[in-house]
């Protein structure tokens, strides 16, 4: 029988990489895995987290060995590259930090004494291993489980790209399902047999067959099949295959699977089991505050519970292979999943083989998950242009590989907003999605829907989705939210507008908010809290649901609720203040200090009330049997703790001199460019920052759409973002530019 022993406890950890340890380090610093060596420095900003080689060392006692003629070491995640040494001998090297890999260690394990296990884990910069350029922290570490597996000489293959040794392909035909079960064997012998079983969730037997071990594939039929039907009914069968010799079970593999049909139609969107099933959901990164990517099962479960609460029907698991347990949860909760490899941001000519190996591992290890419907080939890979022949060939190879390994699913890409819509690269996968941030990174919110309509009209046969959209929010507040202010109020407004535009266009096959949770991005320095991307609907520590979370819950969840927005925005200066309420019920009544301010109905689930602001006001929102409470307080001067003050900013917007009727750095570029004097000024002083259409800016092709996006920035915000792109601008230069703008009358 197969025996699995966890090796998670008590590894000696050292950052001294001068030599491969030949003994336990002394003095030793012990850790349990999952463990990340960037759990702190990968989230505190400055982009200075440790990227290098570290060692994990363990003395394995013969008393701890599992029974088995063959022994395999299983590493479920070591980022980004790793080397395994057993008893002083180098046994394996693996590139790719997000997948499972196993190594046959049988001949090197001492069965009568101790064996030194050394795993070198390296997240150093590389020109051949993805990811290398991306807006998230590349946490190093042995951050998922490590096991030692004992099996008989004849066993199910443990080395086939880290896969489970079993692949199940259900095909729904009318009321029945044809189920092909395929297994991978090592060292099978004459006379051995395979027992195939399919069971219901309750354990009841559906089918059972015993055949010679040479028959590694078997097709059976499930009559009156119970379909896996997303959030409505995520029904899962279990397939089990036993390797038997003389009536004794030598080894067993099993997997759950779901029977479903799906298609993605360019007009009707996503169709599950013959019915239109809108995919409206979120993207997810796998890290946490103070933990990095070394998550435990309870962390994954909490994430799934929160995603289910918001009412999502789909999850984009970005930008790499996630923990197997989370894919299991997606199956159980009925989430429709986009799974992808970290081929991201910058194409590396030396990285082709790594994209292929990571894709093979992703598909083979996750083939049985009913939740997965598309394999993601890449994300924003055309940052430096979409014409590179090597980039195009790499995508064709990956696309063909996915279809060769899996004939049941489709392929997709996440396209950076500035990519030209007639690029050849867009035609390679089966379906596409775009990463658009109109209303945050330039442009305005109203541009989103019309842009998609235009693309859809130009490419009516290509199913189109939105793979990323969002804006950042921290604990900053205002009654006059504006683009780029990082307030919770602007984020709520932004998502209200995007929900109304995206969710009402049936042809959009999927939408994925960027992001469900704030996440670590150590290079970031914006929003007043460095080292994080704050676009999440929930904070990094999962403790606070931002108001925008409830905007989605109002549209997507069937669980009745009412939510008063602005609970963290208590002190307000205006005599009458706007209060927003979200609910999925048809009518909301708001009370101020016990007095009703009236009932309102809203087809879009967003309810707005003008509330007199005097003294202390207790607010109570009531919808059906649901209620929510908050309070506001009248103050004479604005509470400065609500106002963003950028750490390390060249200038904050409130430090800029404004002259009535004249321009300043706080004005949008498109407004300034309406003035002939403004155009001349920027032509002289900012030509390198604002090239004409057809050129390039910060590596991006400048198209008409790109110019519209850039025009949506205020000058001060654009210069701060350019600073993040290593375009250096001094405070003196900005103040001088502002003084010149102050002399130009507004048009």
Summarize the structure.
The chain is α+β, with helices and mostly antiparallel strands and 747 residues long. Helices cover 18% and strands 31% of the residues. The strands form 13 sheets. The chain has an eight-stranded parallel β-sheet.
Can you tell me about this structure?
It is a single chain. The chain folds into 5 domains: 3-151, Jelly Rolls (Sandwich); 166-257, Immunoglobulins (Immunoglobulin-like, Sandwich); 264-559, Alpha-Beta Barrel (TIM Barrel); 571-640, Sandwich (Immunoglobulin-like), CATH 2.60.40.10; 651-741, no CATH class. The longest helix is centred in the middle third of the chain and has 17 residues, at 389-405. The protein has 747 residues and is α+β, with helices and mostly antiparallel strands. The chain is globular and about 90 Å long. It has an 8-stranded parallel sheet with strand order 33-32-31-30-29-28-27-34. It is built from 12 helices and 46 strands. It is 18% helix and 31% strand. It starts with a strand and ends in a 6-residue tail after the last helix. Helix 1 packs parallel to helix 2 (324-333) and helix 6 (488-502) packs parallel to helix 7.
């Amino acid at each position: 029988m197969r025996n699995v022993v966890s090796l998670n406890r008590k590894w000696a950890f050292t950052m001294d990489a001068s030599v491969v340890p030949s003994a336990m380090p002394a003095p030793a610093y012990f850790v349990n895995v999952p463990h990340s060596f960037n759990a702190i420095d990968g989230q505190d900003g400055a982009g200075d987290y440790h990227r290098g080689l570290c060692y994990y060392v363990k003395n394995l006692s013969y008393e701890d060995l599992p029974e088995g003629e063959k022994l395999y070491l299983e590493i479920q995640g070591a980022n980004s590259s790793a080397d395994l040494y057993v008893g002083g001998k180098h046994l394996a090297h693996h590139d790719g930090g997000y997948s499972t890999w196993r190594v046959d260690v049988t001949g090197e394990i001492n069965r009568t004494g101790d064996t030194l296990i050394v795993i070198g884990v390296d997240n150093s910069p590389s020109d051949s291993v993805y990811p290398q350029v991306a807006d998230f922290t590349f946490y190093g570490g042995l951050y998922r489980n490590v096991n030692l597996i004992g099996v008989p000489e004849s066993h199910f293959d443990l080395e086939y790209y880290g896969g489970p040794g079993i692949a199940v392909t259900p095909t729904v035909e009318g009321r029945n399902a044809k189920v092909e079960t395929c297994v991978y064997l090592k060292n099978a012998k004459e006379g051995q047999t395979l027992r195939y079983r399919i069971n219901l969730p309750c354990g009841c037997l559906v089918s059972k067959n015993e055949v010679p071990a040479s028959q590694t594939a078997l097709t059976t039929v499930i009559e009156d099949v119970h379909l896996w039907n997303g959030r409505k009914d995520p029904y899962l069968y279990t397939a089990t295959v036993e390797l038997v010799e003389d009536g004794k079970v030598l080894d067993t593999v099993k997997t759950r699977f779901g029977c479903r049909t799906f298609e993605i139609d360019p007009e009707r969107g996503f169709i599950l089991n013959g019915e239109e099933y809108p995919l409206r959901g979120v993207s997810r990164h796998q890290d946490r505050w103070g933990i990095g990517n070394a998550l435990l099962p309870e962390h994954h479960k909490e994430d799934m519970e929160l995603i289910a609460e918001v009412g999502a029907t789909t999850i984009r698991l970005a930008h790499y292979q996630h923990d197997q347990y989370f894919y299991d949860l997606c199956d159980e909760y009925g989430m429709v999943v986009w799974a992808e490899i970290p081929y991201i941001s910058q194409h590396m000519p030396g990285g082709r083989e790594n994209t292929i190996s990571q894709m093979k591992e992703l598909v083979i290890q996750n083939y049985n998950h009913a939740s997965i419907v598309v394999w993601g080939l890449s994300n924003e890979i055309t940052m430096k242009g979409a014409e590179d022949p090597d980039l195009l060939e790499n995508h064709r190879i990956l696309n063909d590989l996915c279809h060769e390994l899996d004939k049941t699913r489709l392929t997709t890409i996440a396209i950076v907003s500035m990519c030209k819509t007639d690029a050849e690269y867009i035609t390679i996968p089966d379906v596409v999605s775009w990463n658009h941030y109109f209303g945050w990174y330039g442009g305005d919110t109203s541009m989103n829907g019309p842009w998609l309509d235009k693309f859809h009209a130009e490419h009516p046969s290509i199913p189109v989705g939105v793979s990323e959209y969002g804006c950042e929010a921290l604990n900053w507040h205002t009654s006059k939210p504006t683009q780029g202010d990082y307030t919770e109020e602007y984020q709520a407004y932004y998502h209200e507008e995007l929900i109304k535009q995206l969710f009402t266009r049936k042809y959009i096959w999927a939408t994925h908010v960027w992001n469900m949770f704030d996440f670590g991005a150590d290079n970031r320095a914006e929003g007043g809290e460095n080292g994080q991307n704050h676009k999440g609907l929930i904070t990094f520590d999962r403790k606070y649901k931002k108001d925008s979370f409830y905007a989605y819950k109002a549209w997507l969840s069937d669980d009745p609720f009412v939510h008063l927005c602005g609970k963290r925005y208590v002190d307000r200066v205006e005599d009458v203040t706007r209060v927003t309420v979200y609910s999925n019920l048809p009518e909301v009544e708001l009370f101020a200090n016990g007095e009703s301010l009236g009932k309102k109905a809203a087809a879009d689930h967003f309810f707005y009330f003008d509330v007199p602001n005097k003294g202390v006001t207790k607010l109570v929102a009531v919808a059906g049997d649901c209620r929510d409470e908050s309070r506001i307080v009248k103050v004479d001067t604005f509470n400065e703790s609500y106002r963003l003050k950028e750490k390390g900013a060249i200038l904050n917007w409130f430090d800029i001199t404004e002259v009535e009727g004249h321009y300043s750095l706080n004005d949008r570029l498109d407004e300034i460019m309406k003035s002939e004097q403004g155009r001349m000024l920027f032509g002289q002083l900012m030509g390198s920052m604002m090239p004409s259409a057809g050129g390039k800016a910060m590596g991006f092709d400048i198209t008409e759409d790109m110019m519209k996006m850039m025009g949506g920035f205020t000058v001060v915000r654009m210069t701060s973002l350019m600073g993040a792109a290593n375009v250096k601008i001094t405070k003196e230069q900005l103040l001088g530019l502002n003084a010149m703008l102050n002399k130009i009358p507004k048009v």
